[in-house]
Amino acid sequence: MIENLNDFISLVVIAAVTLLSLVASIRVFMTSDKKDDDEEFFREIL
Q: Using CB atoms within 10 A as the burial measure, which of 16, 25, 29, 38 is most buried?
């Protein structure tokens, strides 16, 4: 049970990171003229 739970948690984390990077790349694509704001946005995440 614990092993399955760990697998599930890691899957959720991977999915969340993938969604975050997708949203971030979409933001960068939509607002390519605001690169400085996006860099600050990434620094806040990290």
A: 38
